[in-house]
Amino acid sequence: MIGLDLTDRRLLVELDINSRQPISALAKKVRLSKQAVKKRLEKLEREKIILGYYAVIDIFRLQRLSARLWIKLQGSYNEDEIIKFCLKMPDAGWVLKTDGAYDMAMVFWSKDLKDFDNSLKELNFNFGEFLKEVDISFIVRAHHISHRYLTGEKTLHELVMEQKFSRFEIDAVDEKILQVLAKNSRTSLVEMAKQLGISDKAVRYRIKNLEKNKFILGYMVMLDYSKIGYTWHKVFLRLQNLSEEKYSKLISYLKSKTNVMFVTEAIGVSDLEFEAMLQTPKEFHELMKEIRQKFPEIIKEFSWITIFKIEKVYYAPQA
Known about the structure:
Blueprint: H1 6-17, H2 23-30, H3 34-46, E1 50-57, E2 67-73, H4 79-88, E3 92-100, E4 104-108, H5 113-127, E5 131-145, E6 158-162, H6 172-183, H7 189-196, H8 200-212, E7 216-223, E8 231-239, H9 244-256, E9 260-267, E10 272-278, H10 281-294, E11 299-313
Antiparallel strand pairs: 1-7, 2-4, 2-5, 3-4, 3-11, 5-6, 5-9, 8-10, 8-11, 9-10
Helix pairs in contact: 2-3, 7-8
């Protein structure tokens, strides 16, 4: 495990709030020189604590589904071969290695149910004998919450992606900008201008327009949590005896917990999901005990997985 001082932690939190902000802005917020911040970032990248930077794009505004596969494997499968295949699937936005109830998880940004069905069939045609169980769910609303657990901050900063289509039209250049920022949100205006064959001013204008119209929700950082002593838990909640008030209170309560970084409203495997970064099994046990005691009348049952490797996070679907 690699130790981080408070400045490193604050720097990572700031990057997760906005990974596109310049070195000068980060330097002011952590009260260091630009050179000192640059060196810290380079060290965090070199040690693979920072794995990358990405734009969170509201794929619903691109008129895509957010369909997910939860996969349990069986037999003498070659995990690396399956992962390699999944990474090449054009609509795959997230690819994760997990442990517990499932061995893998995938998120597809599919155009429609037919496209998603084609992706599912493609996976089955190639690896069906190794797929013991494949559960399906759909995201309705996803709350992305900044990494407050690193500093214990109480202030909530969240990005919300929800099932609302946009009337604002984007063109091929906008789509390319989204693809570039989804891959590396810290790509400079100058570099994007070179790739796109337009001026950096035009790139800046288009990015502002994409942000204004909520295609780009924000910019986050991808970390290797295990290297800094955290385990990523994902919990699936099955609910009962619900009312709108009780449901809202549960979501608000989950978002108030500083270790929680995602809350997902879904259809399928669960009624509600959340993801938390914790350092010990005891912390996870205590968190679940607290939640069940707080909402005993509506939590029917729960299950969980641990996410131990991020293979892909990419919010820009292929055309």
